[in-house]
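>> received
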Amino acid sequence: MTHSIPPLSLAALGSSLLEDGHEVKVFDFNLPENNLGDFESLVKDFEPGFVGISFVTPLFGEMKKVAKLIKNINSQIIVVGGGPHCSSYPERTLEESDIDVVVVGEGDFIIKDIVNGKSFEKGKLYVKPKSIENLDELPFPAYHLYDLNKYKVSKSIARKMPAAWMETSRGCVYNCIYCNKNIFGRCFRTKSAERVVGEMIRLKEMGVKEVHFTDDAFTTDIGRAKAICDLLIKRKVNLDFALINGIRVNQVDYEVLEKMRNAGCYKVFFGIESGNQQILNNIRKGITLKQVVQAVHWAKEAGIEVWGSFMIGLPGETKETMRDTIEFAKKLPLDLAKMSILIPLPATPIFEEWDKKGYIKTKDWEKFSFHSAPVEIYDHPNLPWDTIIEYYNKFYHEFYFRPGFILKRIGNSLKNGMILNDIKIFLGTKWFRSK
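>> returned
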């Protein structure tokens, strides 16, 4: 089953344009039935004056194809680019594609100025708007632009469908070396509890059954997080939500986790990254292993499903530190764990450092994908790729094929009605297929 939820970015930008009286249509290439031919037909039928493309680094090549197609249909259409890659390399994006205007940072309001002609000049350019201070001023995302019934995801991602992304805050005050903050920055800005709850009620009225928060750091202001939960409970909103994008282990206490559970939160991701304290220090994570243990146990005691996110191939990594991560993960009462191999994304501190030292092997952005080992992207300073991949595989094998974990997972799956879904996932694993 395709893992697809309607993109929040297009719904947010669409709502700003609709607020100004413009006609808007969205096209989501994530949907398996949508292809370039369908997009070409839409552009020809709709005859837009502007087309916006939001994309991440690995999709740079796909963006170029789409932008070229638009210009082939009508060279007078203004193509506007946005997203993390545009904010990292605005000039290069303009030079290397048919995009006319690049937005650096938040495009919610500047998109109206561009379409209204206020910020657009002849020739290619990029615009960098000021950060939006009061997020309550944002219009509600225009999810009605989507056919929500087309979006289906595995039950391991969302228990109920349709599901929708939602943001309650922007920005993260921390400085992890692998993280790209060029859209929202380090300035933490929030929506009020009233606005958050009002938005959730609106989504529920539209037929949304589950909400996933996109916040970089939902609990940075724990008092605000508690106020949101208190209001959800008071108004009996009864809408399930999950913190898929993760929260920090040093920004929770038992009270906020308990309130979250009572308000409808059933799943939370913790960005743990490593089971070795020195590696955590190397990546400037700003957490301790003791805080990880405490946060995971608090969440479990509160009745929340806990997923842990880990990473290997980090600066200073050795066989011993990767073994530490595997053993640490196995000791935690996690419901699921996800391992990834470091990808030094453009404009991150680790990319800049390793690029200067000659470890970055390519700037072919299509290779910067999270779905394969980044052997063509960089050389690790002190580990060969076969060792990193070996420990990546060891992590999954040792974590998931423990008898105790399997029995616990079967029990939870039976309880939550997820047993058939889990069997399908297991039968599809590389480990099982190789037997």
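>> The CA atoms of residues 150 and 406 lie 33 Å apart.
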